[in-house]
Amino acid sequence: MKKKSVNYGKWGYIFILPFFVIYFIFSLIPLFDTVRYSFFEYFRSGIKQIGPNFVGLANYVSLLHSDMLKYGLNTLILWVIGFVPQIVVALVLACWFTDARLKLHGKQFFKVVIYLPNLIMASAFALLFFTMFSTNGPVNSILCSLGWIKEPIDFLGSVLGTRSLVGFMNFLMWFGNTTIMLMAAVMGISMDIFEASDLDGCNSIQRFVYITLPLIRPILSYTLITSIIGGLQMFDVPQILTNGQGNPDRTSMTLIMFLNSHLKSKNYGMAGALSVYLFIISAILCFFVYRMTNDNDPDGSKKAAKKRARAERRKTK
C-alpha cells in the first residue's frame, strides 16, 4: 500500500495570504488611485465638487511652476542638519561600545538610554521643544536669570533657530536606532580580523577606515536609504513646531506639509501628482545611494584584472 503523503507547503501560502490581501486592499489599490487621480482635475470649491476631469500632465506642470522646488530644498536642508550629526555620533558610539579593548561596563544600560528617545512620539517631542524654546519658555528664562542674554531669544522666529530645532529633534529621535543597527553590524565582524590588524600595528583610525567601514557598508547603505525616505516624509515635527505654517517665511515647509495642504483643500489631483513626484525622487536617490555604497568587487579581483589588462595593452602597443 502506498503511504499517503501530506504536503505542508501549502500552509505557508495560507499563512501569508492575509498579509497580501490587506496589502492589496489598503495599499496597492490606493496607490493606483493616487497615480490615476494625478492626471485628473479633481477638487472642491466650497460645497461644489469639480471633476474628476482628465487634464493629462497639467498637474505635474503646475507643481513645477509652484513653490515645490523651494520646499524640496527646505526638506533637504532639514534632513542634512539632522542626519549628518546622527550618522557621525552613531558611528562613534557603535565603535566605542563594541571595542573589546576598552572593557566598558553597563553596556546594556547605555543601549537602553540611547534608544529611549526613539520610543517617544514625534508629536510629543515637538510639543516639548515648542514649550521649552518659546519666547516665555524655560530656556529663555534660564539664560536671562544667568545674565547671558538681556532679552528673550525668538528661536522660532528665525530661520536658523527653527531649522536647527527641527534638525536637532530628528537627531535625538533617530540616532539611538542608528547606533543599535551599526553596533550589530560591527559585532558581526570577526574578532580575528581586528586581532590581526593589532598585530600588524594598525591604530584606531586605520582600523576604522580600512576594516570597520568597508565591512559595515551594507548596513550603512540601508541606514542612508531609510533615512532619505524618512527625510522626504518629514512632516510631524515641523508641522507641530510651526503650527503647519512652515514659518518663518515658509523656510521650514517640507514637501509632505505642502502635500498635506493640498489634501486639506481637497485638491486630490495636485496631491496625487506631488505623491508621484515624491516616489520618483525617492527611487532616484535610493538608486544612486545603492550604486555608490554597493561594493561589487569586495576582494579587489576585478580591479586587479583591469589593471593587468591595461598593462598588457600597453605592452602590445
UniProtKB/TrEMBL annotation:
InterPro entries: ABC_transporter_permease, MetI-like, MetI-like_sf. The keyword Transport applies. Its main location: membrane. Residues 303-317 have a biased composition (Basic residues). PROSITE patterns: ABC_TM1. The keyword Cell membrane applies. The lineage of its organism: Bacteria, Bacillati, Bacillota, Clostridia, Lachnospirales. Belongs to the binding-protein-dependent transport system permease family. Keywords: Cell membrane, Membrane, Transmembrane, Transmembrane helix, Transport. Residues 297-317 are annotated as: Disordered. It is a multi-pass membrane protein. The chain crosses the membrane at residues 12-32, 76-97, 109-133, 171-194, 215-235, 268-290. This is Sugar ABC transporter permease.
